[in-house]
Amino acid sequence: MRNIPLIDLKAQYNSIRDEINKVTIDVLSSSQYIIGEKVKSFEKEFSEYLNVKNSISVGNGTDGLVIALKSLGIGEGDEVITSTFTFFATAESISSVGAVPVFVDVKKDTFNIDPDKIKEKITSKTKAIMPVHVFGQPADMDKINAISEKHNLYVIEDACQAIGADYKGRKIGTLGDIAVFSFFPTKNLGCAGDGGMIVTNNDNLATICKALRTHGSGSNGKEAYNLLNNNIDEFLEEDNSIDNTVYNPLKYYNYLVGHNSRLDEIQAAILRVKLKSLDKWNNLRCEHVQFYNESLKYTEFITPFKEEYVKHVYHMYILQSERRADVVSYLRDKGIATGIYYPVPLHLQKVYEELGYTLGDMPNSEYLSERTFAIPVYPELEYEQKKYIVDMLKLLK
Ligand SMILES: Cc1ncc(COP(=O)(O)O)c(C=O)c1O
Q1: Can you give the residue range of the structural domain that contains 144?
Q2: Among 43, 267, 328, 351, which has the highest number of CB atoms less than 10 A from its own CB?
Q3: 82 ligand 1 Cβ < 6 A
């Protein structure tokens, strides 16, 4: 029987095995494991790829969102507007800094936050909008930025699922005040563990993020403290007599309560190799999508909609069915893996019960959560595999 996984990380590894093995061993031999040359080079290459001034690598995308929110001074008593049809980490990051996620329904076609429904959610406590470029398709950033400008709000792009996508010719991640990517292994650019990246054109935010990823210490911590407190405080005289030939003593001067959230050298080395293939891999995803869209045109399945002015990178290829449970179990019997994204919109999650949302509040997300499912669209998918998938879908009675 066939066995087609939703994502085939082994196939990807096999295609670049020698280079990955080599750079991994290089790091092990160097015994430099955290924020060394590989991380610095990767941050630089990532900035060049996106055409953004600052890239600050972190331990994972969730931490990246938390740190980005903190860098903007968002915390207790603040509200952040976001999509209800996304992975939990989006809202979790907002809750983690003590702010309240305010959910907005998505558009039924793009699955992205509906900008026309944002305005009614803005209050005096609103500090930011966090759009998610869900499944790899950019959110409607022009409309979102126009609202944020009018109401003086920050825009934090949750770009975790959409590396390489662009919106009207501009790469996502460069369209708001600050953006965050995830390198979770299954992402379009994934590492061999957890990893993430914050990007921003704002140097001050970059300094604060750098401080927050390493315990709020050192010269970044000092500068970040000044930026967050309007240079009001006198500092302890740093002890310049300490011998810093072995360890940088500034490391033990702390200015902010931060995090320990850094990208390992091994992950950076692997990501540097993979970044070179990212565009090729994203284009292969798009080719699969073209095949699926054509092949499934006259079937019962609703294929994904793409706005004309975006480059969608299809982190997931999402179909809709009126009888999803039957389809998913039928495909499982045929050896085809699927995924359900997302079975429960965030406003209906148990953890957010106290926010008082009820069924019916976000009709589009609730509708989608009962119908959407993902089929394999990973770059290494072979013609016979995708042909088999559509043949099986067409044979379904
Ligand atoms: C939309 C979205 N936001 C945030 C995250 C969090 O990223 P990570 O898993 O790297 O913490 C993810 C990925 O898992 C995601 O898909």
Answers
A1: 10-219+259-275
A2: 267
A3: no
Report the nearest atom of ligand 1 relative to the CA of 65.
4
pTM: 0.96
- Residue 252 is assigned to a structural domain of this protein: no
Return the pLDDT at 1.
58
- Ligand 1 centroid – CA 187 distance (Å): 9
> Considering the domain boundaries, does residue 82 fall inside one?
yes
Give me ligand 1 centre to Cα 47, in Å: 20
Based on the structure, what is the number of domains in the chain? Answer: 2
Mutation pick for ligand 1 pocket among 181, 182, 267, 342 (CB with most ligand atoms within 8 Å):
182
| Mean pLDDT in consecutive groups of 10 residues from the start of the chain, 397 residues | 92 97 97 92 98 98 98 97 98 98 98 98 98 98 98 98 98 98 98 98 98 94 90 62 63 92 97 98 98 97 98 98 98 98 98 98 98 98 97 95
Please check whether residues 85 and 201 belong to one and the same domain.
yes
What's the CA-to-centroid distance between 84 and ligand 1, angstroms?
A: 14
**Contact predicate 196/180, CB 8 Å:** yes
Report how far residue 65's alpha carbon sits from residue 128's, in angstroms, rounded to the nearest whole number. Answer: 12
The pLDDT score that the predictor gives to residue 238 is 63
